[in-house]
Each structure stands twice: as C-alpha cells, then as structure tokens.
Amino acid sequence: MPPGGVRWMNVNLNLLPTFVAVAEGGSFRLAAETIGRTQSAVSMQIQQLEAQLGRRLFSRTTRRVALTPEGEQLLGKVRAALEDLSDGLRQASGLVASHRGRVSVACAPSLAGSRLPGVIAAFQKAHPAVSLRLRELPLAGITESVRRQESDFGVGPPPLSPAGLLFQPLLTDPVCVLFRTGLLRGQRSVRLAAVADQPIVLMGGLRPMMEEAARRSGLALPVRHEAQQILTVLGLVRDGLGVGIVPGIAVPDPLEEGLSALPLGGPGLHREIGIITRAERPLPPVATALVALLRRCLSPAAAARPRPGPRRPA
C-alpha cells in the first residue's frame, strides 16, 4: 500500500482540479464560479475527495475555507502533477500536428534548384500526410509572400525591408564565378578585376552587391545578360556568351563537362541565407518541423561543402 495508507487507484482524479480551485479561491463560491459548477456540487466533490483520501483537506469556517496541513502538502503535489500533465498533452498535440497539415515555403531560385529538393524529399518521407507547397520567388516576392501570410516562411537572403519580419541565418553563401574550363586555369579564387573584361552573365538578386563591389574596385561591370535560373546561366556560359556570376549554393556539384567554378574573392562578396518569418506570429508545428530539418540538412552541409579551387568534372 502507498505511503499514508491511501489506495490511489480508488481516488477519483477528476476531483483534483476542483480541490485546486477551492484551495486557490479560499471559498466554495469562488471555486464554483471559476470552474462553472454550482456551489453545492463543488462542496460535494470535496467531501468525496476527503472520504477517498481518508483525511480532511480543509478547515471550514463561516467566512472562509482554509487548507489543513495535509491539504497544503497535497496542493503542492497536485499542482506539479497537473502542470506536468498539461505539458505532456501540449507536447503530444504538437507532435501530432507536426505530422499532418499544410506548409507553404517561399524560396529563392538559387536554393529551389539546388539544395532544397533533397530537403523536401526527406521531409515528405518523414511526414507523408503533410501537404507541402513550394513557391520559387525573387527576394521581394519572398518577403511579400511571408507578410501576406501566403507562405508560412521564406528561405533566402536578408529582407531589404525587414520591418515586421525576423531573419534567422542558416548559412553563409559565397559568390562564385562560373566559366568555361581553361579560362582561369590554376587559380584558387578569382578577383573581380580578372573578369571585368568579360561579358557578365549575372544571376538575379546579385546586382546590388556586385555593383557595390565594382564601385569599390573602380571597375565598370559589363553585365550582358541577367537570369533568374542557374540553368539559363549554365547555358549562356556553355555557349561562350559570357562569364557567370552566381550564388555558390546554386552551382551544381558536380558541374557538367567543360565548365568550372571559383569563389569570387574580395570583401563582402558573400551573402547570408536564412529563414524569414513574421515577427509577431509563431510558426505552426508542421512548419517548425520543416525549419528544423532545413537547419540539420543545410547548415552542416554548407560548412563541410568544399569551396576552394575550380570545380571540374572528374
């Protein structure tokens, strides 16, 4: 038998919230108003609990109800137990919610065509009941989609207008030069001046950064073509129409035969990639689960992914 001689299996646990309400209110009337029952029903439940426990929990006067020493001891234990139960139910509810529902993600093209598909495939395998929608958008479109609640969160560079948004970094992405193999043979990185005499194929989203870098270097950047998709840049470079300047994360690994990539050296020639959310609204459980997977898949891989030296086919 448990300590104190009480057979807990004979105690009606549904009476415990009423016990807490009376103890906190100091009266049957206030407890009845708090839990939405009649005063006589509350009094009867306390009598039942005392009978089941075999001890008095309250000393009653005409003006108030006070806890006995046994009641004081029980109150602390019951509060802790109810809090633990509530936490457990919330966690269970969040776990269930994270395995079903819908999630919408707005993403930069540089990620949508490179690293994100593998993460989405892993997420859908782990959460087959979740409907996931991917929207490939430029940075301005990502931030507007998140603000308008069309997407749960975005993945991309820091917002240009961050009001009302949160940015949580995932990785640092260097800017790379994409070129026909042999053009820059033997180098480990390339300075902007080395390609300033070449027609530039610029991937969308990099223009402000590259214009600032050219200004600092006293160069005129000969941008001949701009593209949103890495496949377009690859095609133009492959056919000799220029040298590509692209986010490093967008560069296929391995590259197709005849093409190589090098980091573009110089201060500020990298950008942060992170999670963009609304500042005032927490993510739903299913979106939180996807963000956690993105952190596991992108951050370590980005840190370990080799960057120096030309990327050439084996």
TrEMBL record:
Stored CDD domains:
PBP2_LTTR_like_4 (cd08440)
Alphabetical list of Pfam families matching this protein: HTH_1, LysR_substrate
> Which GO cellular component terms are attached?
cytosol
Supply the InterPro entries for this chain: HTH-type_LysR_regulators, LysR_HTH_N, LysR_subst-bd, WH-like_DNA-bd_sf, WH_DNA-bd_sf
Q: Could you tell me the keywords of this UniProt record? A: DNA-binding, Transcription, Transcription regulation
Q: Which GO terms describe its molecular function?
A: DNA binding; DNA-binding transcription factor activity
Q: Which residues form the HTH lysR-type domain?
A: 11-68
Q: Which family does it belong to?
A: Belongs to the LysR transcriptional regulatory family.
Its name, as the record gives it, is: LysR family transcriptional regulator
Lineage, highest ranks first: Bacteria, Pseudomonadati, Pseudomonadota, Alphaproteobacteria, Acetobacterales
